[in-house]
């Protein structure tokens, strides 16, 4: 029963905006607009975004310094083997940020 339920879960998603403080010149929000819509029927998936937030101070000659944050991200996708998930309760499905 668990595998039948898992195959119906669709973890498609869109990240519209991910920010950790005020913007400054040259800042790139690498996940903004990211969309995942790759669900395959009769399977499930696990999306992982490993995000590291870095405190940042931007200074430009003659302007007020800006204290903010930028981030780096490592992205992974794992298709879950439903036969294994049926036997192993620790098999993960979902979205982790």
**Order of helices and strands, N to C?**
HEEEEHE
Could you give the distance between the termini? 28 Å
Number of helices: 2
What best-fitting shape do the alpha-carbon axes yield?
elongated
Please give the radius of gyration in angstroms: 19 Å
Percent in helix? 10-25%
- Low-confidence segments: none
pLDDT averaged residue by residue: 82
| Total DSSP E strands | 5
Content-based structural category: mainly beta
What is the compact description of this entry?
The protein has 97 residues and is mainly β. The chain is built from 2 helices and 5 strands; from the N terminus they run αββββαβ.
Write the layout of secondary structure elements.
Layout: H1 2-6, E1 13-15, E2 34-36, E3 44-58, E4 66-80, H2 82-87, E5 94-96
Parallel strand pairs: 3-5
Antiparallel strand pairs: 1-2, 3-4
Summary keywords:
two-stranded antiparallel ribbon, single chain, 5 strands, mainly beta, about 100 residues
Description of the molecule:
This protein has a three-stranded mixed β-sheet. It has two helices and five strands. The radius of gyration is 19 Å and the shape is elongated. The model has no long low-confidence stretch (mean pLDDT 82). The chain has 97 residues and is mainly β. β3 and β4 (66-80) form a beta hairpin.
